[in-house]
Amino acid sequence: MKKYENDGHIIYQGDAVEILRSEINDDSIDLIFVDPPYNIGKRFSKFEDRWLSGVAYAEWAYTWIDECIRVLKQTGTMYLMTSTQAMPYFDLYIRNKLTVLSRIVWSYDSSGVQAKKYYGSMYEPILHCVKDSKSYIFNADEILVEAKTGSKRNLIDYRGEVPKHYNTTKVPGNVWNFPRVRYRMDEYEEHPSQKPQALLDRIIRASSNEGNTVLDPFSGTFTTAAVAKGLNRKTVSIESQEEYIKIGLRRVLGLKEHQGQKLSKPMKNTKVKNGRGVKREKITGYLFSVNS
Q1: What is the pLDDT of residues 14-66, one digit of tens each?
Q2: Beta strand pairing status for 9-13 and 234-239?
Q3: Do 131 and 74 form a contact (C-beta atoms < 8 A)?
Q4: For residues 140 and 171, is the Cβ–Cβ distance under 8 A?
């Protein structure tokens, strides 16, 4: 196990369960975002995301779920993701330990490879859970979105004693439409399942306050910690793969170099066609800026 720390932000390199057990105190974390391996066969650097069965995967997950619950404050919140196939295991297990406030659907555009013999997957599920259903953080005013009935149609609500316009903003529902991170986006990192900054921004703003501590036990591209840092939260991140630790050292701790290696954003190689009939050419560098 290795530990890196700077200005209220801690990065651990090692096994999530072991580090949770040995390094994180009881009732010390305000917000946990968990985006674990999904047991769908992806390759994460030197780790293959594959268990012998769905049951074996669930039993492994229950160990870190219990540890996350232990370290979560009484007023704390946990957001938990996994595949659509595995979420029933998680839901049935966690509902006996925490209160599930919302079952969120993160909806996105379809993948490049389209299903032909079944309905293709276009969402990932998220459980929004708290320890105490009567005492938890939810900053509704921080995450308001446009209420189309009020802002677009300009309707009048006649149900009260005094007619009034419908509200122009509202708290988001439980279907969230954020595009997946694509190669050409500024926020892109070299990782097979990077989550968008907009998704984490909503979660962190809603369920924590400035100065609170945010934990991500499977940090990957360290988007959770990077967004939390920008919102003046403290962070604890855990990641097992050296390749991804370097991303965290750069994005969260601000290091320019690690063990003699320069830390920098991915250099992008792509082929583009500049008009009909123009030859394709290879371009390298920070080419594209797509803000979604």
Answers
A1: 999 999 999 999 999 999 999 998 886 666 667 666 778 989 999 999 999 99
A2: parallel
A3: yes
A4: yes
The phi and psi torsions of 227 (rounded to 5 degrees) equal -70, -45
Distance between CA 11 and CA 229 in Å, rounded? 13
Residue type, 237: S
pTM, entire model: 0.87
Nearest to 154 by CA among 172, 173, 168, 169: 168
The token pair that represents 180 in the structure block: 């997946």
Residue type, 230: G
pLDDT digits (tens, 9 = 90+) for 62-106: 999 999 999 999 999 999 999 899 999 999 999 999 999 999 999
Q: Which residues contact 279 (CB under 8 A, 6 or more apart)?
A: none
Q: Which domains does the chain have, with CATH numbers?
A: 2-137+174-263 (3.40.50.150), 139-172 (no CATH)
Three-state SS across the chain? Answer: CEEEEECCEEEEECCHHHHHHHHCCCCCEEEEEECCCCCCCCEECCEECCCCCHHHHHHHHHHHHHHHHHHEEEEEEEEEECCCCCHHHHHHHHCCCCEEEEEEEEECCCCCCCCCCCCCCCEEEEEEEECCCCCCCCCHHHCCEECHHHHCCCCEECCCCCCEECCCEECCCCEEECCCCCCCCCCCCCCCCCCCHHHHHHHHHHHCCCCCEEEECCCCCCHHHHHHHHCCCEEEEEECCHHHHHHHHHHCCCCCEECCEECCCCCEEEEECCCCCCCCEEEEECCCCCCC
Pairing of strands 213-216, 29-34: parallel
